# Entry
Amino acid sequence: MSFGGFLDSSAGGRLVGNYIGFPYSGIIAKDDPSAINIPSGATAHQPPIVSPSSLTKSMFNSPGLSLALQTGIEGHGDLTQLGDGNFDAPPTGGGMMNRRSRDALDQEHDSRSGSDNLDGTASGDDLDAADKPPRKKRYHRHTPQQIQELEALFKECPHPDEKQRLELSKRLCLETRQVKFWFQNRRTQMKTQIERHENSILRQENDKLRGENMSLREAMRNPICTNCGGPAIIGEISLEEQHLRIENVRLKDELDRVCAIAGKFLGRPITSMGGLMPPQLPNSSLELGVGGNGFDGLGPFPDFGAIGGVAGSLPVIPPARSAAGIPGFDCSMEKSMLLELALAAMDELVKLAQIDEPLWVRTLEGGREVLNHEEYLRTFTSCIGVKPSGFVSEASRETGMVIINSLALVETLMDASRWAEMFPCLIARTSTIDVIYSGMGGTRNGALHLMHAELQVLSPLVPVREVNFLRFCKQHAEGVWAVVDVSIDAIRETPSGPTTFVSCRRLPSGCVVQDMPSGYSKVTWVEHAEYDESQIHQLYRPLISSSLGFGARRWVATLQRQCQCLAILMSSSVPSHDQTAITLSGRRSMLKLAQRMTANFCTGVCASTVHKWNKLGPDVAGDEGVQVMTRKSLDDPGEPSGIVLSAATSVWLPVPPHRLFDFLRDEQLRSEWDILSNGSPMQEMSHIAKGPDHGNCVSLLRARAMSSNQSSMLILQETSTDASGSLVVYAPVDIPAMHLVMNGGDSAYVALLPSGFAIVPDGGPVPGAVNGGPSQRGGGSLLTVAFQILVNSLPTAKLTVESVDTVKNLISCTIQKIKAALQCDS
DNA sequence: GTTCTAATCCCTA
DNA sequence: TAGGGATTAGAAC
# Structure
């Protein structure tokens, strides 16, 4: 059945309106039997009886439509009676007439002036009739003729201007305000009808999906391999199960949407998505894009339109490059899948952060928490599928107080560049690929980002971990937020293409942050990953497997240290113990310059892609375990232009990390390893503390000049230390440029190339004598030495073997000197 | 009890 | 001040 109106089942099959786009045309009069159906309750020989109201409605429906007659109406429907029959018709079926006195009715009738159809309340007769009983009746209906005219104009113009309304009111003997109200109500009615229509389409869609789901479930009971026709193996079933789970969530979301629309009609929002659902739907359901009118994918929650087109097929995971910009099914499908993954990950993160034993077990030595994998597998269903063969797991949890509030931390985490700035030694590079949901009501609650990151420990012996992941942010309570990351390589291709080899998967990881008094917050960090251990040098395997490399402790310790520094940077007084009077803005400029220096140092240690480093093969670089890379520096005011060479290596030293750190940062002992010191102790010109630990500071060192006619050289040095490791980064700087910075000038134009050291604990017994020495029962250090040197100021110049050899000699010489000074060169 | 409809109130641009 | 959303209340079903 095709029709222009809507059959409202709850109204007993009455035709209640007209769908937009179907013209109102024709009038069904009582002498037009072709337009009238005999209702089931009437017999064929009985003449059709048309009630005033049903006739009124029938006049605005398309010709040929079925008109459902109301069987309970008595015959007072003669058209000739309709004009003035509204009030005086005898009571039918116990309506209002029973409640009103005859007198009152008479008064009403008498008081009517001019038109029978004018509203009584607007009549002057009523206003001054104080002695009369108050008018109970303000209601009447316009005559069919009037409505016909009104509808005709509405069809032409749903929004008539005052002139048109005035003209119509004169013609129909109605007040202009009555005409105005009529149009207003008609527009509202039209809107409601459209919304209802869309609602019913959604319901149908939902039912259809439910049916599909049921049949899929049925198919699941007897899985058959599509290739051979035999019983499906377990792996396939689990994949199907995964698809079904995803499909179910999609259905649930669909239902939520219908509920939300239904809630709109009920006058209150009905949501079952928890924090994800906005409190209210958009004002107009037209924005939902239902009914094949387009799916913009920009709404506050997933679109699920037009999915009937793939009925009967399993949801195929689309190889979408981006969730945005893909219209219709693919986009909404992918978004809902990503959302499901994010929600599951969030659930897992919160549980991992909250539950102690038996999920987490404390080790006897060091009190570190270790994930009980059996319990983990019992508690959670894997979000991202089974662990690839050859991968090992790494899980850690750490809680700490951090001087930052939850909102600021959430903002930092949800902004890729700020996130990278906060963890320069951990993040080589990161970017936001796609903002799937930006959050609700201007907050980050419900924000879902697709991100790419290269994570690093500062050593050429540990490859960067390239991960594509979802980052989902949720507010759990006032002042309590959680941000979860989860790899998505398992369910979609990486932006760089399907062939990218994944060497690391992040299982639900992230942090739960809770505001505490005095600007602090309690941060519980969980890091859970699976990685290919074979790519990691043996020297670093204990460190990585004990979660000291990429683990929660490192994230929390770095966060604490960085936030301390930020707190000092933001405070009005930057403590310094220097011999020169540097202004406040000068200190801030210096800290900013040091921050850039350290960040550049970090990006030069590992072969991350942030700079286009060319890694030299062993034929050029040699096989002494030194990684040599080159790049061209052009048009960057922050560093000298030319060919930059980076050389880095890592060694094991039987010295505790703190001792190594104290030795390397001491300007008095610098001459023992630094050729720039010219064999003499250096002098600390300026010292800016970045936190309570003396090891966290920025200082300006001066080396003694080689000869009397040579000016002395300045070295900018930044040292950082926390529970997870330490850094000593330095760079020779131009004296006039530093003067500028110390006076608060812009540090962006100070050219520097950083060198330095990264120190981490060895993480336990280090296997076999590779590059470092005999294996020991832990307690030693892993030291990374890295130099970035300008080998030629002409970017077009070729790199010479001599340059490479010089740098390699410099590195091995430095390491030998350090070993000798610490008496561990045996 | 539900739906339709004319009218009213109140808010906003 | 016009227009629209929310609401009211009589009438119809």
